[in-house]
Amino acid sequence: MTTVGKLQAALAAATNEVTIAAANLNFDFTLVKFEAPQEYQPLGNILSTKRKDNAEHGSTHILARRLGALFEGVCSDTPNLLESYGTRASEIAKAAKSISEPYIDTLFGEYTGIDGTSIWAAATSSKSALHVHLLACMLARMWTAPEAIAIWVELIAERKKHIANEMERGEPVRFSLAAATGQDITRAQLAAWDTSARAWLSTADTVQGRNQKQLELILKNIKLPVNQDLSVFPSVINAWSLAVETMEKLLSGMPQAVQNGATLLGLSAWHIYPDMTIFSPKLVTVKMDDPLVAVGGVLSLGLSATPRIADDDHGVYWSLSLAQLRHYGRPVKSERALGNSSQISIKQLQLVTFSALLSMWGCSEAQGDLNAETVVSMVDYIIGSKHGSVADRQLLRWLRDSACAYLNRATHDIDLNIKLIRLGRRRAERFFEDYEPEDPVTADHSNYFFNILDQLVFMRVLKDDDARVAYLRHMASEMSTSSTLPDDFIIRCAHQIQVSNNTSQPSLDNHDCGRSSRSETSQLNEPSSRSSTRSSQQRQTPPGAAYHSKQEDRGVSDDRQLQNLAQSPTNSSAGDEDSDVYESAVEELTDDIESCNTGDKRGEISGRGENAKEEDSETEEKGYNKEEYNGGEVWDEEGYSEDEEYSEDEEYSEEEEYDKEERHNGNKRPPSTNTVHVYSFATAIPCKALDETLVHSRWLPYQFRDGIPPEGETVTFTADEIFSSWDDCVQIVAAKEPETYTYHVVFGDPDKVALYVRRKPGAPYSLDYTVKLHHLQWCIEHKMIDPSMLLQKLVYPYGGGGALRRVLYVLSGVAAIYEDMPDATIDIGILNRPLLRTRWAKDLVGRFDLRVPAMKSEAALAFSVISYFESGIHDVAPDQLDGVIAISSTNSLFVSGPIVQDPYESILNPFSVRKILGNVGKPGLTFLLPPQDPMTREFDPTSWRLDSHLPFDGKFVRSFEGTSVHLSFTEYHVQMYDGSRGAHDNQMSFLESVISVRDNGQWVADVDPLPVIDRGYGHEIRKLPPQLPCSHEKGSQPNTDITAVDSWDELLDKPDGIFVIRTGDNWVARLAATLVASERMKTKSTSYAITVCPPDTCWVCMQQSLSNHVYVF
């Protein structure tokens, strides 16, 4: 029997298990290498040495040969497509070269740059292998990595069955094809193949950004399935072959019309852009001007309608039933759409989160701009005042940048930004959920605009009573109409003063602030009734406070009571007798008030007497803080009380906040004083003066007669004669008919400053007594806001808002981590779950300030955050990532900043992460871990003849010229549970990574980089602080015995005492020397320090504190 006959017989017998007798052929055709076509040569020249070697001789080349042979003949010959694709790939590789060049000399150099491994492996294998690479790009473009691998597994299995069936039927089969069916292809190999294709797509999309974005805008408006077949093998083979054939014709200049999405998927995956004519909904011609497409190669879309069989999302979509996705269960029906990229930038995330914030506030899109503008004004105001911690400023910057992103949403990518805004609104509730959503208190995080517009909160953030009065006047003017009279509003200010018990003073029951007790309501028109103790306050309405129905009895003069009273300072319409009684009481009280401890630092009306300075000094001597009188508020310089701390987890009800505010206001005073309350009054609407000008008036209590009155206002000291006060209302008792001049509080804080309105029947205007955003803006513009109080209310909101604040703090911390990675993207999958319930969120909330020198777990926390935002789903606890030095994902390496820069620049600086174009060729997220006990070259005992250990002469010498640092991997590659139970393909793993120091190619040592990454781990490594100017000549010899180390053998044979490793300005050698010295010193000494020095170090001025001290110079 011939060889072919024997092979056919063996294949027929093994059809069911698809094992082919070709495996017995003693010939491994995969080791054959061909010269890559000319168009692909520029790409091959740009690949790193390690990637090129893998593509030509390693596992990727073997896989490309096997796949090319297995699928040979499925696609027809397409010389124009393969040539054009090679040209475009080389163009992309050249454009991307500059991105990775800064890191070529680092230890990651062999893994930086574009990942064109699968392209070069296919180009050096066969034309059919290049077709298979094109298929890999199509699958990577549409499907997730586990789904694509499952498709590959099923394709290979079905293809082998198909070949076996052909042999069984006696059909001729090429030798290479028969041999290929006997080759084993593992899921791990397919995962690496898919990873390379994904990395290439990501890089090519960035380089071809403009064309790719334009193509996506076209495709998103077209509803086309790739095809209607749910079976993997026929669906994929048909889509692949159709896309290849159609593209070949387009490149040849032949116009083509498409009726499904296969070709469009090929356009997107291969980065070739023909001109297009779109017939639906109207005729549109799109010029792409791709020089690779011959004239006439126009693609027509929309000639026929294809019914949508799944959801209503726009774009090209593909539905398949995946049988190899899970270990157990029925095939999983999956559907993906083209153009639904899950990656967005940090700026786009800010737009999404601000939109979510607006949704939480209940704002419509039309209200968004005003909210964003107010946020920007508020943040600029606070930052300009230089208040707040570093963490607070991070939060403020995030808020401001998010608001700016919202305001600038129409400047570019309008359609995309609209989608992002709507996405944020849909995901808001879920994204902002607190730790414990079932708790109604912590779940209440929707207070509008951080609750700053609450009346009580807003009045407290104003600087002082003058600011509060000015704001209430502004508010009253907004509500006024042409029929509004000056006496329709009145403003009342409450003041606290201290009266000493050491002097003879009247009873508080007879001389308090003028609040009425329940027993005195029948004597409201008598002056003596205007006093009561604060402890006996009752919320009551005085007699005659009801609407006065006899409007005809009121004359014109009655409508101008405030004007008349302001112009008559000595007016005593309450009666002379009453005035005498009151004046005698005032005289009695005055003596006691003169020693009150009230200041006037902010320019308020002061009631300080002649003995104020003596009282101040006496109080300070007794150990009491000097108090500020600020409309009844007492604060320290930072705006906080001394005995109160805010916790970020505290949440207050309005009542609790009010009580706490009262405790803020309570002075720390000697037990020999009592607090009494007095009131002043002010007009809200200006009155006409005698010269017809409009002026405001103030009525101050007699106790303020020695104070500085407000400028530009009419001031009298007859407040207690003219007005009577209750908790919620004020009455002008000096009016002809006091009951008709009763005012009820409508806005503000009656215990501080409040606006009162006179209730009149049939008033022609309706009043809106709420704080508006433009009120806040107006107060900011007029610098009436206390920035420290505003920040306090923003950072520590009461009555809910804790979850929202924590989410914003977390996001601002994330932004700090990504600060050195401006081109990094994040996965929008993070919006699908509460951010506060991630395993790293509480660590970040508890450590808001990421811009301080890194502590032991700072790197682990940063990598935990990055792994979540990069994948959108993988939530890894920081303690699981202790020791991780880098992450590899798709086409990105996220590496610890200190291991790719001069240690002098990184020591004591904030920990940072750098993003480098490249990868280590592993699927999903790969965490790089150094070995626990790195090895060092054994010391050569004969080297003493060559190594001299000469005295250090102070010279700056570049002694380690041949030093280089390299990265390699051991066989320790451990899968990490990624939460996908039952799945075949895991997307997280640990890879043991060895950092080796070499001297002119010769191995010196493997090093542990953690001493320069984690400060807690490597506290012995220091940075020489700046030295004071001196007159010593640069390079002068030190006056201390110091040994010079100028070779690796001299360092390995560590000298005694103090020595200097002379690396010069070679930062790679400085890093290597620092790490090797750290390893050597740990084995030789228990007490040591390594100090990295700048080039201008003066060794004469140098001071040493340890006997075992190493300098890297």
TrEMBL record:
Spans through the membrane: none
Domain of life assignment: Eukaryota
Comp. bias intervals (Polar residues): 562-574
Span list, region Disordered: 502-674
Name of the featured protein: Uncharacterized protein
Compositionally biased intervals (Acidic residues): 575-594, 634-659
Bias (Basic and acidic residues) ranges: 509-518, 549-561, 599-629
Compositional bias (Low complexity): 527-543
Organism lineage: Eukaryota, Fungi, Dikarya, Ascomycota, Pezizomycotina
